[in-house]
Fold this protein.
Amino acid sequence: MSTESNQGIHLTERAAQRIQLQLQQRGHGLGLRVGIKKSGCSGHAYTMDYADAVEAGDAVFEQHGATVVVRREYLPLLVGTTLDFQKQGLNQAFKFVNPNARAHCGCGESFTT
């Protein structure tokens, strides 16, 4: 498994802690798999799933003891993105801060570059 330089996704400590907690609760897994799909009114949406293995064509980012796996084809849309985990009242979710996103839809589910 090769680890990429800082030319990809950056994790906050809160995001890394949440990834580790979810993997502990699940009982297995390598990290979080982040991707992009065409969707929504703005064109792209983020996807997240557990990463159980690194596959050919994947880039791996490790910070604060947590691992994020991304298909290399998505890197142009994700370079420089910070992944945070935020709690606001009863709501809690991962939040993407993507410098490549030029606009977001009103619901916040999709973005355009």
